[in-house]
Amino acid sequence: MAVIFSGIQPTGRKHLGNYIGAITQYVAGQDRGDPAIYCIVDLHATTVPYAPAELRERVHDTTAVLLAAGLDPERCILFRQGDVREHTELCWLLTSVSALGELNRMHQFRDKSAAQRELISAGLLLYPVLQAADVLAYRAHEVPIGEDQREHLELMRNIAERFNARFGENTLVVPEHRIPAVGARIRDLQEPERKMSTTAGTEQGTVYLLDEPDAIRRKFKRAVTDSDDPPVLRRGDDKPGVTNLIDILASVRGVSPQSVEQELAGARGYGDLKVAVGEAVVEALGPLQERYRALREDESALEDALAQGASKARAIAARTLADVRAVMGIGAVP
Ligand code: TYM
């Protein structure tokens, strides 16, 4: 059985891309993972300007979303990155086998650093090394992610391979990504050439998991499709808007995009598709939103769940760190 690990940024504004690309995979991984480990990455959140007084609130928001989506602390390890100090220590130790040139070329570093006005923090450059430490500390085999994290996954494989070659084969596990076949890159509803994103997308084109049902319906009704006349209800590289809607509908219903295409063959236009997908998303998110409201109120229960997860996570990560320190010659003789 595989060790599964993934991480997610703490924000109160998780969107449909996070849900379809990642969160539904986390939930499915609980029964396969041995164990399945999910981490809310507060340390990563410090690489761009942020409000310290709000960070813990955002961690609680994300914890409640993940629990509401179906993560069960009895069946997975759910914890906050900043509670397990092994992540930061391993990050430093891995910098010795991380290539500056490679970090410099990361798309996310390029995009995020270009967006900074005052300070481009060194943390932004080292972000993928911390991400590598997250996964490698648990010797995870499988990492469920969306398409936008593929490059970071490749980098972490290089780091693990270089570490093993330099300090000892089999100290670290070289992880594999698990990117879903459908829904790995949910697109902005207004600008379907871009991915749905909290920071880089449009407000009307981003469907947040906690949006009111009417707001969700409205965003889908106004989704940009294309000007094919008559409308062509099929997927294709030349039809990003329509493809996105079909993929979303298929994902939230748990069916194949082909079956959605067949079902829509008789539809008159894009309007039918937009209404169908809006309704399906409202229906899928309704129970999640209801559970979220109940869970979010009880902050001490959220903290208890995170603390319980952190102690399990620490026990695993501490073993890896002991091995890493030993092969690197760091600290007193074990
Ligand atoms: P974050 O918080 O930005 O995103 C969480 C997950 O959502 C996926 N995702 C998408 N999937 C499909 N369509 C989209 N439009 C879309 N937007 C986001 C992301 O691919 C991700 O899987 N750096 C990571 C957090 C992280 C991590 C890790 C991930 C830290 N350590 C270790 C894996 C392993 C991030 O910012 O995710």
UniProtKB/TrEMBL annotation:
Record's subunit section: Homodimer.
Cross-referenced CDD domains: TrpRS_core
Keyword presence, Transport: no
UniProt record similarity statement: Belongs to the class-I aminoacyl-tRNA synthetase family.
NCBIfam families tied to this protein: trpS
Catalyzed reactions per annotation: tRNA(Trp) + L-tryptophan + ATP = L-tryptophyl-tRNA(Trp) + AMP + diphosphate + H(+)
Function in brief: Catalyzes the attachment of tryptophan to tRNA(Trp).
Keywords: Aminoacyl-tRNA synthetase, ATP-binding, Cytoplasm, Ligase, Nucleotide-binding, Protein biosynthesis
GO molecular function terms attached to this record: ATP binding; tryptophan-tRNA ligase activity
Domain of life, source organism: Bacteria
Localization of this protein: Cytoplasm
Keyword Mitochondrion: no
Source species of the chain: uncultured Solirubrobacteraceae bacterium
Residues where L-tryptophan binds: 134
GO BP term, pick one: tryptophanyl-tRNA aminoacylation
Enzyme Commission number: 6.1.1.2
Binding site for ATP: 9-11, 17-18, 146-148, 186
Name assigned to this protein: Tryptophan--tRNA ligase
GO cellular component: cytosol
